[in-house]
Amino acid sequence: MSAGLFAIVAVLALRVRGARLPMQVDRAGSGILDSIRAPRQLVLDFGRFPPATLFPRFVAYGSILFAAALVLVLVAVAVRRHDPWAALLSLLAPIGAVTLVDMLAKPLVGRYHGAALAFPSGHATGAAATATLILVLLNRWYGWRVALCWMPAVALLPLAVGTGVVRLGWHYPTDVIGGVAFGAAVVVALAAAIPGPNQARVRAAHQ
Question: Can you list the positions of beta strands (E) in the chain?
Fold first, then answer.
């Protein structure tokens, strides 16, 4: 699975390498997202926040803090379940994915959005890595049926972050697709590489 996801990243990277302008698919995707109008005011439990203020706050630091909080929760759960493999994966996977994007993938591809390197999107990478990590651990602890049931809810994190960075004009849609594929691929690859006890035995020990 990770090989297929990395292949998607590689194909997109070859298409956008060294580019500064959006592809046709980027224009189409951005047009679709821009046509979706959010309400003038989003009513939340703690008051009213204009979407123009909420989007930048969520994408710029809210999504990062949210993902970090999720990772810490997963580490705590893994420690409580006496599962050092899961704790190690939780610590390494999202951080490793974002580090590889910023230090390796973006400079190699050299695609710019404005003055900044853009492909793959670091925000989308981190969100997808966190979401994939949750699904991997759910599968490990409770089985693939539970992971499958939670997949739509977990997918909301990369979907919201990806939509936000495109709507804000920070990334093209292909940057987001590449980031989602890269983040998921890194987590799946690390999950396969880090040795751990038999998953069925782990689930049985905590039933």
Answer: 42-44, 47-49, 112-113, 116-117
